Amino acid sequence: xxxxxxVLHPDPRLKKVCAPIEGGIPPELGQLAEDMLExxxxxxxxxxxxxxxxxxxxxxxxxxxxxxxxxxxxxxxINPEITWSSDDLNTYEEGCLSIPDQFAxxxxxxxxxxxxxxxxxxxxxxxxxxxxxxxxQHELDHLNGKLFIDYLGPIKRQMITRRMEKLKRERxxx
Length: 174
Description:
Elements: H1 27-42, E1 47-49, E2 59-62, E3 75-85, E4 89-96, E5 99-109, E6 111-117, E7 123-129, H2 130-143, H3 154-173
Antiparallel strand pairs: 1-2, 2-3, 3-6, 4-5, 6-7
């Protein structure tokens, strides 16, 4: 397993729609998923989409277990799609590993049902609520070239983008 560098906003790859994974699950996808989970846990984060490490495929990982006394529940979702969304809404303060140290309230459906292909090459479907629903929708947005800041007003979005450009310049000077 190896940690992968996380792509930082603004980067054109974060605004692209990812290609579906077709023709079954290639063996290297399991290794990619393991690397993504390791990178996500190390960051630390609760979700990571493939484009955030520069892989333009429809795949994300997540684990929203935060309690120390509860076993982790790592999930790998390939070609995920929402099949149902609740009318009830939830607002969470969201952040993103590609936009470090920036947070904003985003309102999304409180519950969603999602269908995806697992590493076992089987279709799975599960209903998520609360933080799991927010995370699943946030990561699915990444696969569609959308960031949580796209839900914000233009001034707030521009302020965050400027901060990120400054951070990238500082890191480049290193």
